[in-house]
Amino acid sequence: MNKKHKSVSYAKWGYIFIAPFFIVYIVFSLIPLISTFTYSFFEYYERGLDVVGPNFVGFKNYADLFDPSSYINNGEISILTYAGNTMIMWIMGAIPQLLFSLMLAVIFTSARLRIKGQRFFKTVIYMPNLIMAAAFAMLFFALFNTVGPVNQIITSMGGETVRFFDMTVSARTLVAAINFIMWFGNTTILLMAGIMGIDQSLFEAAAIDGATSWQVFYKITIPLLMPIMVYVAITSLIGGLQMFDVPQILTNRGEPGNSCKTLIMFLNDYISGSKNYGVSGAISVLVFIITGVLSIFVFKTMGWSGKKSKKSKKGV
Amino acid sequence: MKKRILAALVASAAVLSLAGCNNGGNSTSGNTSTSGNTSTSGNTSTSGNTSTDTPASAGDNSGKKLRIACWNYEFAEYFNAFYQDKIPAGITVEWVQFPNEGKNYQDNLDRLLKANESASGDDKIDMFLAEADYIKKYVNSDFSLDVKSVGVTDTSNSYQYVLDAATTDSGNVLKGVSFQGCPGAVIVRKSIAKTVLGTDDPAQIQSKIDSWDKFNAVAKDAKAAGYLMTPSALETYRAFANNATTSYLNDNKFAPTEAFNSWYAQAKDFVDNGYTLTCKLWADEKTNEMRKDGKAMCFFGPSWYYNFSMSTAQQECPGDWCVVQGPAAYFWGGTWMLAAKGTDNTELVGQVMNAFTNDAEVMEKLLLGKGIKEFSTDGKPTDADKFNPAFPNNKAIVKKYADDASYGNEFLGGQNDIAMMSGIADNIKWIKENHTVYDQTFNEALPEAMLESLKKDSGVTEEQAWNNFYKTLAGVDPSITH
Question: What CATH number does the domain located at B30-46+60-182+333-402 have?
Answer without folding.
Answer: 3.40.190.10
